[in-house]
# Entry
Amino acid sequence: MDIKKIMVIGAGQMGAGIAQVCATAGYAVTLHDQSEDALQQGIKGIERRFARSVEKERMTQEEMDAAVKQLTTASDLHAASDVDVVIEAAVEKMDVKKQIFQALDDIVPTHTILATNTSSLPITEIAASTSRPDRVIGMHFMNPVPVMKLVEVIRGIQTSDDTCMRIEKVAASLHKTTVEVKDFPGFAANRILMPMINEAITTVHEGVASKEDVDTVMKLGANHPMGPLELADFIGLDTCLYIMEVLYEGFKDSKYRPSPLLRQYVQAGWLGQKTGKGFYEYNR
Ligand code: NAI
# Structure
């Protein structure tokens, strides 16, 4: 069956980006969030990015109008009753994701694939909370979604070949390159990236170097486009902490212990760019 309708759940930085690229590719997209404010902010962000693309001649006004037309919002999950694929990008918490997947399982048609953009949570466990584990898969986009080319495709132990093939086709239609990875804590991208960010935070916490100097070391010394602390602020410090906790729990190895400083920043509500303060300060 052809995939024409997609619901994206969560209108935060990832969900809004995913909805944007899906609408640009011509899918009928419904963006859902439990927060009406997040939905409005998400749509505003998409329109702002489209307008900038038109200004920079990366897309025409007609293309922008066509893409905007593909987008609708829904605060009721029942709007998923006729979609072919759901891509969930709500907060990185297993209980929240399971709740969403269980509810969706009763709402969506039998053929519908339920994909999650989780950064690190086990796909197999999310899938097992539904009656269709063969049609549940990880579709891990990178941030910012419209710019980054990679999508990690993660198969749960029960994910079918057909589901995998169909999701890889959707990713290709969004001009993304896919890498298929196993369902192991942190998958591939965050198993490598997050301990590096966590170590950068520990380096600052131990007073080895200032946050600016740690970022300079990695930018000028390792040719990273962003320093690890800038990147942590960009990703969201809450998301970084959740991922470290998944790695620590999943491997039971102390090398993945989340930095106490990271935990303290999250406790303070300093989540990075999205709250205006993390390791750096931002005008929102
Ligand atoms: P965010 O905090 O910007 O947005 C999360 C959104 O989910 C919020 O708008 C919130 O209102 C909504 N939400 C929470 N619970 C919900 C529910 N029960 N039903 C509907 N909506 C709900 O978070 P962000 O950064 O967009 O992350 C979302 C997901 O994407 C997480 O699983 C995260 O691990 C993953 N991810 C994040 C990346 C990043 O760089 N931030 C990169 C790749 C994946």
User: Anything to note?
Assistant: Residues 9-15, 33-35, 38, 89-92, 96, 100, 117-119, 140-141, 143, 235-236, 239, 274 surround NAI (CB under 6 Å). Residues 131 and 198 are 37 Å apart (CA to CA). Residues 36-55 form the longest helix (20 residues).
